[in-house]
Specification:
By secondary structure, the protein is mostly helical. The protein is built from two helices and two strands; from the N terminus they run βααβ. α1 runs antiparallel to α2.
Length: 66
């Protein structure tokens, strides 16, 4: 279980940008397994960001980031 709050949105967004760069570079090198693993993490991170943005007054949001 992973618990976070809206105050960490900037860090989540920064991590998302970094993951997009990793995925892009891995795609260019043909590293399909690296792309696959990081896209899964990216999907989890997108869910976390969406949840926090949807209800910023919520004291905490819980998401499975595994």
């Amino acid at each position: 279980m992973f618990i976070t709050t809206p105050e960490f949105l900037p860090q989540h967004r920064e991590q998302r940008q970094q993951l997009l760069q990793i995925v892009s570079a891995a795609e260019a090198r043909g590293q399909t397994r690296v792309v696959e693993m990081n896209r899964q993490v990216l999907g989890n991170l997108d869910q976390i960001i969406t949840t926090l943005e949807a209800d910023p007054e919520q004291p905490e949001a819980t998401a499975d980031a595994s």
